[in-house]
Design a protein that fits this description.
Layout: H1 3-19, E1 27-36, E2 53-57, E3 60-72, E4 78-85, H2 90-97, E5 104-107, E6 131-134, H3 146-163, H4 165-176, H5 187-192
Parallel strand pairs: 1-5, 5-6
Antiparallel strand pairs: 1-3, 2-3, 3-4
């Protein structure tokens, strides 16, 4: 069975299970990871991949693409995937990843302010307001009292414990499927791979 036929079959099964209310999309986790591309110019054209770009995370520069995923917060099943160049910020992709069935959305501090953006999805199909549970940056609570810092830390730990499921998806993709570095040039080929 080819890879595209397998992914079509998986999408059909997920749609069938969702239709029969066996998979309930109550909560979603969104995150992204870098997929490195060769930055070498030792090729026929003497050029880098034209659709890949550089981005900085911490003190490390990454050249390549970024895989943005949306994962169910209970099962860890991937519902949506978008591949962009590495310089595309996480918060810009939030609206494209979400279906309109969520009740809660979890994300890391890269998604701060996502609910305030003009393209943000604020209500689901049932008409209820979507609750965005986005982790704070640690520096945001350093001027608070010790008691409030402890409460903030506890809340952030609760959010992070739910959000950790998305990291398992990245571990499978990067370690078991060996998709740490691209083999092809171009955004369309990266998405297909």
């Amino acid at each position: 069975m080819s890879l595209s036929a397998l992914s079509d079959e998986l999408a059909r099964v997920v749609a069938l299970l969702t239709e029969r209310n066996l998979i309930l999309k109550k909560g979603t986790i969104v995150d992204s990871t870098f997929i490195e591309a060769p930055s070498s110019t030792k090729n026929k054209d003497k050029k880098r991949d034209p659709e890949a770009h550089s981005a900085k995370k911490g003190n490390t520069w990454h050249f390549g693409y970024k895989a943005h995923v949306e994962v169910d917060h209970e099962t860890g099943l991937v519902h949506a995937l978008e591949v962009t160049s590495a310089n595309k910020h996480d918060v810009c992709m939030m609206a494209k990843l979400l279906t309109v069935e969520e009740q809660v959305v979890y994300g890391d501090s890269g998604y701060l302010g996502a609910e305030k953006r003009p393209e943000a999805i604020t209500t689901n199909k049932a008409g209820k307001r979507i609750c965005y549970k986005i982790n704070r940056r640690p520096s945001r609570s350093k001027h608070n009292s010790n008691r409030s810092r402890a409460q903030i830390k506890r809340r952030e730990r609760e959010k992070s414990s739910v959000r950790a499921k998305v990291e398992h998806v990245f571990a499978v993709v990067k370690q078991q499927m060996h998709f740490r570095k691209t083999r092809y040039r171009g955004l369309q080929k990266q998405t297909a791979n």
